[in-house]
Amino acid sequence: MTQLSPVIWWVRRDLRLADNPVLHAAASSDRPVIALFICDPLVEGLGAAPKWRLGLGVARFARCLDDMGSKLILRRGDALTVLQQLIAQIGATAVWWGRQYDPDQVARDKKVKAALRDSGVDAQSFSGHLLFEPWQVQTGQGTFYQVYSPFWRAVKDLDVAPHLPAPECLRAPAQWPDSDSLADWGLGRAMNRGADVVHPHLHIGEDAARTRLAYFIDRNVADYQDQREFLDQDACSGLSENLTYGEISPGALWRAGQHALDAGKAGAAHFLKEIVWREFAYHLIFHTPHIVSRNWRDGWDSFPWSNDGTGVLRWKQGRTGIDVIDAAMRELYVTGRMHNRARMLVASYLTKHMLTHWRVGQDWFAQCLVDWDPAANAMGWQWVAGSGPDAAPYFRIFNPDTQARKFDPEGRYRRKWLAEISASAPETAQAFFRACPRSWQLSPQMARPNPLVDLAEGRKIALQAYDIKNKT
DNA sequence: GGAGATTTAGC
DNA sequence: CTAAATCTC
């Protein structure tokens, strides 16, 4: 019996076996499957923490494929060139992949798909990263949604594709093509001193993601709506890290949330809404790709941002002098993550009180977040800055003190991450000084700086800047 | 074109 | 109480 020609599964941000449409199609085809991960310029261009974390995810996923008698082939270079070389080498006739939606990846994938199809290769993209394809959700007028609530109402009762089981095995090719060594790629190089500190906080891989989801559904989802706002509580799912690399599917979260809701866990309703916020971010990045680089509302182009390099450095270091802001920036550096509400607070402080362009914050998050997601990061920063999607009629400015009183009433979050405010700082807070660049010359014994900006003054300045924008 | 609504607010 | 724009139907 002659063997069918192999399918190349181009693995990207879908490092999972279960509920993966492209893998399911490849496995069901009865053809040999060659899973390929390409370190292309877009991977090379990732920020330090997400690039390092991606490498750890790829390593873990390669072991999963090994365990089922298959392999993950690693190649480096321009994606189309790598694919064409491999196609020629093994006589593949198909290249299939899971779709991505940010402008850089869309542009690359369009070019790859057109070129491969021109040469007679069966090039196909599959869903799997989202619950709903961005072009399938439309307003009554046939346009895309620009406000979250109507988007939510439009999707909340839609059917989500049923779960796809992980294949038990994959047909191997007659001969495995050669592969790079992951270590040679040096994906963790830019992490420097941070890697050892951040590593214990990670949950890498499909099994870890599933375990974490089960824990969240069991322990936290029932009170999610009430508890998620508190900064020191472990009340959130923590699954953004796995979602962004595709180590778990959004469908798995959706079904678990629905099931919990059916079982009477009321907080699950809010969990479903948060999953749809991720969908909404992808809806926006697909329909308005400029959201990653320019003001989403062009009326904001006249906003008088300031350019204070010293202030920005102190924001990055967690030395603004505002405890809750500084604690959050330290949490980011030590864990590679930050509580959702804290993200809003530090973003509001940077863009409003410090009048710094949202892109500066977006770039720093893209360097530091192990759960960095192109759509969520862009939407989040523009939402807080005011230049993004939000129909609210006023210029929203968070007061960090008020917020800390509400959401960290006993100061536990601030003491957990800010060494300089405790006589004997906890290990979590001291870890920052082992992780941060030596060139910053920081120590836990240093005095707290005076606030960079007085809170009332900062608010006034931001409101004046808003007036200037509106008059221009 | 009009009515009704709009994630997390601050003073 | 403020201030009051934009979206969706």
From TrEMBL:
Gene3D superfamilies noted in UniProt: 1.25.40.80, DNA Cyclobutane Dipyrimidine Photolyase, subunit A, domain 3, HUPs
Signal peptide annotation: none
Needed cofactors: (6R)-5,10-methylene-5,6,7,8-tetrahydrofolate; FAD
PROSITE patterns for this protein: PHR_CRY_ALPHA_BETA (PS51645)
Location of the Photolyase/cryptochrome alpha/beta domain: 5-131
Source domain of life: Bacteria
Transmembrane segments annotated in the record for this chain: none
Keywords: Chromophore, FAD, Flavoprotein
PANTHER family given in the database record: CRYPTOCHROME, CRYPTOCHROME CIRCADIAN CLOCK 5 ISOFORM X1
Family recorded in the similarity comment: Belongs to the DNA photolyase family.
Annotated protein name in UniProt: Deoxyribodipyrimidine photo-lyase
Species this protein is from: Roseinatronobacter alkalisoli
